[in-house]
Amino acid sequence: IPNQDWVITGDSAGGHMALLIAEILCDENLREIWGVSKDIPQPKSVLINCPVYDLKACRAAMRKSGSKFMFGPSIFDDEVRKKLDPKEHIASLKAPLFISSNKNDFLKWNSIACDKDCKALGLKEEFMFLESDDKEVGHSHNVIDLTHPESIKVNERMASFIAENL
User: For 98-110, what is each residue's pLDDT tens digit?
Assistant: First the structure.
């Protein structure tokens, strides 16, 4: 990817990974910790939908067995968790961030927390929160049903966000 404009995006767990990768690419110390080449450029923008943002809070919200199943046994090692937790590194993000969620998303509190942290740090971000009562508009709806009107709205806004930040 050297010398190319690119974006990174993901939904749910993929949103977690997209944000963490972007944070690593935006921070020299994190690149060193993770062993990531300096030749890989920062993304021009990051787009996450219904992400897992705060692993510590997710772990606390689940039973121990559920946390272990969902995140693996290393979720109980705070050093490992901190390394994998986008919330721990959000201040490192230099790329513009688009976040979406909605009223029916069971992980909406993660998106709301990410938006709040970004605003507190003065990061360039946009939060699109849909107040729809439509039960079809739920977790990662924008990739589950591409034809739904609310999905189209989110995906069109994401495309515009990319164009605005290239």
Answer: 999 999 999 999 9
Nearest-angstrom CA–CA distance, 132 and 151: 11
Residue matched to tokens 């990662």: 140
Q: Cα separations (Å) of 123 from 74, 106, 114, 162?
A: 30, 25, 11, 16
Backbone angles phi, psi at 97, to 5 degrees: -120, 130
Q: Residue written as tokens 């939908």?
A: 49
pTM: 0.90
Confidence of residue 67 (pLDDT cuts 50, 70, 90): low
Which among 95, 93, 98, 116 is positioned nearest to 160, based on CA atoms?
98
Q: What secondary structure does DSSP assign to 38-98, as a single string?
A: TTSPPPSEEEEES----HHHHHHHS-HHHHHHHH-GGGG-HHHHHHH-HHHHGGG--S-EE
In sequence order, the β-bridge partners of residue 46 are: 8, 97
Q: Map residue 103 onto helix, strand or coil.
A: coil
- 78, 80, 81 from 72: Cα distances, Å: 13, 11, 10
